[in-house]
Amino acid sequence: MTDPFDADRESDLAPSHVKEPDLLDAPDERRLSEPRPYAPTPQPEHSSRAPHLGHVIVFLCFAFLVLLLSQLLLLTPHGSHALKEGAQMVMQPKRQIAAMAIAYLATLGFCVLAFPLFWRRGFLVGIHWNGAQALRLAKRLIPLGLVLGLTVQAISSLIPMPKSIPMDDYFRSRSDVWLVTVFGITLAPVFEELCFRGFLLPAFTITLDWLGPLLRYLSAFSFARLRGDEPPRHFHFFDDAKSAGFADGTDNLTFRSRTAIVGASIVTSILFALLHAEQLAHAWTAVFVLFFVSLALTAVRIRTRSVACSTLVHASYNLSVFITLFIATGGYRHLEKMIQ
After folding, report:
1. What pLDDT, on the 0 to 100 scale, is given for residue 236?
2. What is the pTM (predicted TM-score) of this model?
3. d(CA 302, CA 254)
4. Average pLDDT over residues 110-138
5. Residue 127: exposure state from Cβ atoms within 10 A (0-12, 13-18, ≥19)
6. In this predicted structure, what is the pLDDT of residue 281?
7. DSSP per residue over 215-281, as a string?
8. Cα–Cα distance between 100 and 182 in angstroms, integer?
9. pLDDT score, position 8
10. From CA 271, how far away is CA 157, in angstroms rounded?
């Protein structure tokens, strides 16, 4: 008699011709066992809140330090002279322009190397230079700067000015005037726009964007206390995604309130005008005109979202001044006509 268990035993001992399913053969399991390419962790987008006031302080301190060192460098060869005589030699137009050129170029080099380490993006991207935009709009920006300059000159002709101003010292000789002309339409507008529209404008905008809600809260709190009402318990800042409505983009002026941008434009223009006050012998009417010139440059920078555009308008504005002077003095040959 055949034992049924023997058959089971024989079937267990017999070689198996059917491959048992492997768990790794399953499509899902196979995908799990295969090595996957490395996927880097997505980095958060760069904050548009730069440059801020801390960056401005670094920028201005370095520029001032280099300007001071360049002045001392020019004074070194005249160390044997009396201090007063050496200072007069340093104040010569050519030496002053050389010192400013050294300071401007050194500061620009420092900015290109240092600030990308803080911002984690290129320097020109951080200040929103956008040179391509300036090239596209050059046919409109250059005439705008020329017309703005001629208009300001027409207005300035009606403004009483002192008989002598510090700027006259730069127009005593033909070589000095040519040097001022080249400097005034190249390096000077680039550096001034970088300072005022590249650094100060966004920095003040960021500051006012933070201070605005706080001041409104303090005002509401104080008035509520005076009226005997329950004061508000919370205040909120502007959201990063709240656009000021000037443009659709992500540059350092888009995600701001209108009030902050307008306030920053006014503060920046006041500082711009005061910077030139000494050159104009503190003729405050002329300084007031420069305030509106700065507002115009600021409007160009905001509307085009490009510091390069405001720089091009600024350079064209200065060019119109030198063209008028060139014509009035017969090609810089009769400079005495300018100060008559």
Report:
1. 53
2. 0.77
3. 9
4. 93
5. buried
6. 79
7. HHHHHHHHHHHHHTPPPP----PPPTT---SS-SS-STTTSS-HHHHHHHHHHHHHHHHHHTTTTTT
8. 13
9. 47
10. 24
